[in-house]
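Thread: "does anyone have the structure for this chain?"

Original post by V.I.:
We have the sequence but no experimental structure in hand. Need at least a predicted one for the grant figures.
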Amino acid sequence: MAQFSDGTPFGTLPNGNQVHRYALSNKHGIRVHILSLGGIIQQLFVPDAEGNIDNVVLGFDALSDYLADDAYIGALVGRYANRIHRGKFQMEGKTVQVATNHGDHHLHGGFKGFNRKIWKVSPQPVANGSALQLAYLSPDGEEGFPGAVDVRVLYSLTDENVFTIDYQATTEQTTLFNPTQHSYFNLSGKPLPVDDHQLQLNANRVLEVNNDLLPTGKLLPIEKTVFDFRSPQKLANGLHPLAKVLAPTNGWDHCFAHSTQQPLQAKLFHPKSGRSLIITTEAPGLQVYTGNHLSAPFRAHQAICLEDQCWPDSPNHPHFPTALLRAGEIFSRRTQWQFSWS
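Reply from O.Q.:
Generated one for you, tokens below.
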């Protein structure tokens, strides 16, 4: 049966608050280590076709490394994942200015977003598995966002090898809410580039971006382009050999979308180990990011993020899906990671 283990000390913050590490595991050998800091998935162990169990996400062994990290490794991201142009938008007839922590623009919640917060962690009962609820109350005005937001994230693991992320949030006044989980996957379990991984994605459009990786507002069809992942494609096709095509990213850093009523789904496969990961999300977009700017102890293109989210800069594009959350509404979204090996 899937099991939960109580938190163990992982380190102490400069303000004296302690960070704990928790674990979820199942009967097939999957084990997930989760930190109270940022809801970080620190390690995720998965068997391969030969029965070897390896960690398939990037993570650090020391708290000090997470405190210095600027790549959001393994963390919950919010209030707003991805970019907002100049951190500015109109909402209910007023101009809202949020933190500009990425040059002139807002990125992933600001200077001290969800990834920098201590979450309250408690075990929760789930059918045929084990779960942790993470809770955080984001105060009115945090990083410039209006309205206090009560956020709950449920991480659960079942004996069917499904890891589920359930997001829920309520607010006291209209605000933006667009969370994601920012784990970096490498299904080889080794410190190698992910260019030998294959990706399949049921999206038929990609958002065009400018040199600041902000959407222009155009959605481009992917047919007969390097963005067409409707059948499995090696990630190498979008790394160094086609860097000039994908400039300025030198790799994938694009939001994909589709126009059907079916959930957005991606399959990541590593042929040598036999490991595969299917991500299914209720979010309208999936950001595919191949760690183009990772630095020591990691390196560029060592892992891939598949970030479920609303489209970048959505408040500045009225035809994009909305990320507005109003008083009295309940934000609810589910994302599932299904692991297999053969």
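V.I.: this helps a lot. The two ends are 21 Å apart (CA to CA).
O.Q.: and The chain has one domain: 3-341.
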